[in-house]
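Quick bug: Cytochrome P450 output formatted oddly.
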Amino acid sequence: MELSVLLLLALLTGLVILLARGHPKAHGHLPPGPRPLPVFGNLLQMDRGGLLKSFQRLRDKYGDVFTVYLGSRPVVILWGTEAIREALVDQAEAFSGRAQIAVVDQVFQGYGVVFANGERWKALRRFSLATMRDFGMGKRSVEERIQEEAQYLVEELRKSQGALQDPTFIFHSITSNIICSIVFGKRFAYRDPDFLRLLDMFYQSFALISSFSSQVFELYSGFLKYFPGAHRQIYRNLQEVKDFIGRSVEKHRETLDPNAPRDFIDTYLLRMDKEKSQPNSEFHHQNLLDTALSLFFAGTETTSTTLRYGFLLMLKYPHITEKVYKEIDQVIGSHRPPALDDRAKMPYTEAVILEIQRFGDLIPIGVPHKVIKDTNFRGYIIPKDTEVYPILHSALFDSRYFDTPDTFNPNHFLDANGALTKNEAFMPFSVGKRICLGEGIARAELFLFFTTILQNFSVASPVAPEDIDLTPRECGVGKLPPIYQIQFLSR
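Here's what came back:
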């Protein structure tokens, strides 16, 4: 449906609600912000470039902590490294609630480890962290899994014989196979039709979730949900994936050996059986499906998108790529696969990967939080259940922490002697109690996949470096790189 039609419907519906409700009421003592219209909130202050640009402009006027009304609900915006850390780290418990993302709310409905709250979230997070640490098996480390997948990747790229290709499919496949081996206990062949279908569902959904229409939906989901739109396609896509997970769970149940759990699903089923007599247990079928979906989606989409950004940047900045080649040759050579122990001896490559994550800015607005109690923050009173957006983009591009934030520059993470340095503003996985639970796996994947590819292949493009466009395809909840073609040439 055209945006103009959606806005017209919003206006007409809003007028009806306006007559019924009157002006939005203020609660607590919220941070400053533009005065909202009844029902429509700060629609007039919204930029056509999307929520991030809107927030950036409002921050210039109201400072690092301000309130914006998305429709009739107030949202507190945290801008910059200090504001985000003060909230999510210094007052971690108060800001540990999870608000919903409107376009996926119908899919998750507060279930699963990512969108749960309270005791449900605590129980699922503890279980997920422990199970992903040892996969319920203790047989193979995540490093071994990634190294094995990296060799399948090398074989697949060699088959291309240097032909131009869109790397989306192959990067999706390798990252998805790592999370599949943990959750489902198996990897998929790259040409498996069921696997390709699932990857396509994820790719479509992440693009739709990050689209401008989904940002409009976030403002007026209460009535736009009754009309056609991206939210319905997202629901169909993710429901199809959830149906696949459901079938996998049934197969696991039929072949479950209590003495030898194979993967995340087996371990969860054993926990379900253990707590089946507890009426308030959070280990039930719904939480299993939605937690598996969360891990599967996030584990596939985030790291693969980062790799896509990374290799586009390697094409754009060949002088940086050459330095990575040199360090790989010096430290690893060509006769053994990269290992995680190599990271400590490869500060430049590590700095490049960190800068890819910073510059790629994968989740610019951050996954929304909410306060779980009335919270005093910087002299303001934020009422319980108020949504809070920690704008991760504002930290990753914070000029107080990065000398040239708008430039791709690995030196942001190196000291004068070329040693790796930490940076408080680097938070692509967020910070605090809701930090991404797959951070360790993602970091391992990025290093091992990135170095294995560049150990075996040089990269090339028909487009001159100076003509390569880095403008994102979408920038909303997520940020997607433009579609591009690349050649992997055997070294």
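Actually, after a second look the formatting is fine. The longest helix spans residues 285-316. Closing.
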